[in-house]
Amino acid sequence: MSEDAGGGRRPVSEGARLLRQRAEMGAGELFLDGMTRERALELAKAARAARSEAARASAGAEATPWPSGARRPRDAARSGPARSTEDSSPPPSAPLRLPDSHEELRAVASACARCRLAESRTHVVFSDGPPDARLIVVGEAPGANEDRTGLPFVGAAGKFLDLLLATVGLSREESVYICNVLKCRPPGNRNPLPDEISTCSPFLEKQIEVVRPEALLAVGSFSAQLLTGREKATLGKLRGEVHAYRGVPLVVTYHPAALLRNPKWTRAFWDDLQLLRAVMDGH
């Protein structure tokens, strides 16, 4: 028996149960006034037993695996929030299996939602020109006109590019396939971000594999750095020589939009086109 708060007697078992509960909750010391030495010793013994029992229960819970298929309570979860079962889209880092057919590849790209750019685009800008072209021109990312029409290089820069290609006997109607590193327009025409490039570049890689061109022309820093594999090199360091991308000759030059802003670079672009034409002619 033990004494209650009013000085009465209560069973030791009830006192032990109280102490066990306090031990499980991590409660501190308990002070009881008006208790004899004998009763205090009884409760102290019960308290030690309660702590031992609580410790054994805690050790058993840690050692026992959670039953297969059972739902763990919130406070038992240790591995962080689970991925929502409603989100079935693959994360950007997941391997992307792409078809070998050009039209099927276009369809997959048109439905892509693997990065943030899918939320703000009007159209996926996949390509223009014949899929058996001799040359692939690779730009950086669609602009406002491209996003509106779904076709690459349709603004002032695109018309200038067509004119310059015509000077060496090339056209998107017959011999030039045009695409970009990114298939969706970055908001405000900002530069492509590294994770956007890594997420979208498998489409470009597959386009080059499917078209099998004689040569590649990279216009602008982002496409030049990606295709040469020299991410830190400036465009000035990369142009003026013939590179190779997976065995395909690659020439690097300025973006046509840059020529509109800086006409003095047009001569350098012309020189790069002569280099490209020599490569395609086998010289």
Task: Describe how the helices and strands are arranged.
Layout lengths: L1 E2 L5 E2 L1 H13 L12 H27 L38 H9 L24 E5 L4 H6 L6 H11 L9 E5 L13 H18 L3 E5 L1 H8 L6 H4 L3 E4 L2 E6 L2 H6 L4 H15 L3
Parallel strand pairs: 3-4, 3-5, 5-7
Antiparallel strand pairs: 1-2, 6-7
Helix pairs in contact: 1-2
Please describe what this structure looks like.
With 283 residues, this protein is an alpha/beta fold. It has a domain at 102-280: Uracil-DNA glycosylase-like domain (Uracil-DNA Glycosylase, subunit E), CATH 3.40.470.10. It is 41% helix and 10% strand. It contains ten helices and seven strands. The protein has helices spanning 12-24, 37-63, 102-110, 144-149, 156-166, 194-211, 221-228, 235-238, 256-261, 266-280, and strands spanning 2-3, 9-10, 135-139, 176-180, 215-219, 242-245, 248-253. Helix 1 (12-24) packs across helix 2. It is elongated, with a radius of gyration of 35 Å.
The profile of the biggest β sheet is:
5 strands, mixed
Strand content: 5-15%
Mean pLDDT across every amino acid position? 80
Stretches with pLDDT under 50, minimum 5 residues: 1-12, 60-90
> What would you give as the CATH superfamily of the domain at 102-280?
Uracil-DNA glycosylase-like domain
H and E order? EEHHHEHHEHEHHEEHH
Strand order of the largest sheet: 4-3-5-7-6
Rg for CA atoms:
35 Å
- State the separation between the terminal residues, measured CA to CA: 108 Å
Total number of helices: 10
Number of strands: 7
Keywords for this structure?
alpha/beta, Uracil-DNA Glycosylase, subunit E, 10 helices
